[in-house]
Design goal:
There is one protein chain. By secondary structure, the protein is mainly β. It has two domains: 299 residues, Fucose-specific lectin (Neuraminidase), CATH 2.120.10; 172 residues, Collagenase (Catalytic Domain), CATH 3.40.390. The chain is 7% helix and 39% strand. Strands 25, 26, 27, 28, 31 and 32 form a six-stranded mixed beta sheet that branches. Strands 1-2-3-4 form a four-stranded antiparallel beta sheet, with no helix packed on it. Strands 5-6-7-8 form a four-stranded antiparallel beta sheet, with no helix packed on it. The longest helix is centred in the C-terminal third of the chain and has 13 residues.
């Protein structure tokens, strides 16, 4: 079961990718919103010996404000479904949206209202374009506020629907029921003071929030709340539905509540196991399409980091984790192809990205360009050691002028056909897999079409500061590193530490 816009939270499983990426938004430690994502598609047809790694990317920063809380959905605007986000910025409720049909640029902030606090909740309910429904805490202990934007009528205006509840709200989570006799009702859980409370709002224009129920004490921050399908079979006529809550505990860790609906939708909540440790400020809860419908939790900490837990919906369900959601340094690598390599460009990119992810570097490929310079086929290169720019061939100088769309510390890797090198004073000949010699201020490398799958990663290792080759033949930085293309080469701790200090890497922005 993939994420529904009728469930609220700051994490979702989107329509991007085959499996569907996890998308996560949370407050940056200093300012703005941190946006991260996890690519849930394993590398297709991977032939090297290593377990699949589902890689997190980001964070990127959205906005500049002092953000207290965030909620995000993928709505039905656009073909793919734009991401819609609301946030509390210095007691002001604001709205952002992302153009998922275009360049995925974020638009906003657009002010909704002042006088709010805590972590908000957002869903898209109803038919057609429906309505955006937002519930958020009212400042100074004033309970909760319910805002609505009717997307089927113009102009698109946010209106305050109701003020309800009481107490100091640190966060809330909203859903619309889509099963059973009460389908269409809104339900909400919130942390008021130290209490976890539940509200219901029957479907209807003039209905109001009612039936406040205290589920327990000793909680903090913002809860996660979903309607889950426990059958694992969407569309099954015998569909089994449960309601699930995960909420931070004041004493540390997380608490899990659930209930099964009855005809009147009044069944009791059950406090299940507590799990995890540490102090969390907000929880996002979804049901993913992994397994038979695993529950997935992103638990946010005060320092702007987050942990990932998951509950496997199998014969012996349990909570697993945490796995830290990393904030990685970025290396931007532009690919320019003069001669297509024997391994595909995608295979080179996948192998490099997976290898560097293990040491905390996210490799991104902003552009891939085919070059038409026949006079550089084959390409003569200097046989100088890494780091020397003397005696670069004229062909290299000409090739390195091709830096379209490259800026800042971006790196360019050129795929070429290299001439055989005649070693001075000897009749022997030598071929190389690549070369990282480059002009000052233009970080670049060449990789020959016959190179192994790890050659690009090897040359990038040189560009990131590894000047000397490793003496162990199972290491990436061995002189012919990664010659066994089916075996993943290793990067030593010292090499990893040195690479991570490179000025070519972009620090996380949050």
């Amino acid at each position: 079961m993939s994420y529904s816009p009728k469930n609220s939270g700051a994490m979702l499983q989107s329509t991007h990718g085959i499996k569907g990426n996890f998308e996560l938004a949370m407050p940056c430690k200093k300012k703005g919103i941190a946006f991260c994502w996890r690519d849930n598609d394993p590398i297709a047809n991977k032939f090297w010996d290593a377990p699949d790694i589902l890689q997190w990317g980001g964070p990127y920063r959205i906005g500049e404000g002092k953000i207290e809380g965030v909620a995000m959905i993928q709505g039905n605007y656009g073909t793919k479904g734009n991401l819609e986000l609301v946030a509390v910025d210095k007691n002001t409720l604001v709205h952002y949206w992302r153009n998922d049909d275009g360049d995925k640029s974020w638009n906003g902030p657009y002010k909704i209202a002042d006088g709010v606090q805590g972590v908000p909740s957002l869903i898209q309910a109803g038919t057609g374009k429906g309505c955006f429904e937002v519930v958020v805490g009212k400042e100074k202990g004033g309970g909760l506020l319910h805002f609505r934007r009717d997307n089927n009528n113009r102009p698109l205006e946010w209106r305050l629907t109701e003020s309800f509840g009481s107490g100091d709200v640190s966060g809330c989570s909203l859903i619309q029921l889509d099963f059973g006799i009460r389908s269409g009702d809104l339900e909400l859980v919130a942390v008021e003071g130290k209490r976890l409370v539940h509200y219901r709002r029957p479907e209807g224009i003039n209905s109001r929030w009612e039936n406040r129920t205290v589920l327990g004490k000793g909680f903090t921050g913002a809860p996660g709340f979903i309607q889950a399908d426990s059958s694992g079979l969407i569309g099954n006529s015998r569909r089994k539905v449960t309601y699930e809550i995960v909420v931070p505990c004041i004493s540390g860790g997380l608490a899990h509540f659930s209930r099964k609906p009855n005809v009147a939708n009044t069944s009791s909540w059950v406090h299940n196991e507590d799990f995890g440790s540490g102090s969390y400020t907000a929880v996002s809860l979804i049901q993913s399409n992994f397994g038979n419908g695993n529950l997935e939790v992103a638990a946010v900490k005060e320092d702007g980091s987050a942990d990932h837990y998951w509950w496997s919906a199998d014969a012996q369900p349990k909570w697993n984790g945490p796995v830290i959601i990393p904030q990685l340094k970025r290396l931007r690598v532009h690919i320019k192809v003069l001669v297509a390599p024997s391994f595909s460009i995608q295979e080179h990119m996948d192998a490099t990205k997976e290898l560097f992810y293990k040491i905390g570097i996210s490799v991104e490929y902003p552009t891939i360009e085919e070059l038409d310079i026949p006079e550089l086929i084959p390409l003569a290169v200097s046989n100088q050691e890494y780091g020397s720019i003397r005696n670069m061939s004229e062909g290299q100088k000409l090739l390195y002028e091709n830096r379209n769309n490259v800026s800042g510390n971006d790196v360019v890797v050129y795929f070429v056909e290299l001439e055989t090198i005649h070693i001075d004073g000897d009749n022997d000949q030598s071929t190389i897999g690549g070369k990282a010699t480059h002009p000052i201020g233009k970080p670049s490398a060449v990789v020959t079409k016959y190179a192994t799958i790890w050659a690009m990663a090897h040359e990038l290792g040189h560009l990131l500061g590894i000047s000397k080759h490793n003496q162990s033949d199972d290491m990436l930085m061995f002189e012919s590193g990664g010659s066994l293309y089916t075996i993943t080469p290793l990067i030593s701790d010292d090499e990893a530490k040195k690479m991570l200090k490179s000025r070519l890497l972009e620090e996380p922005k949050c």
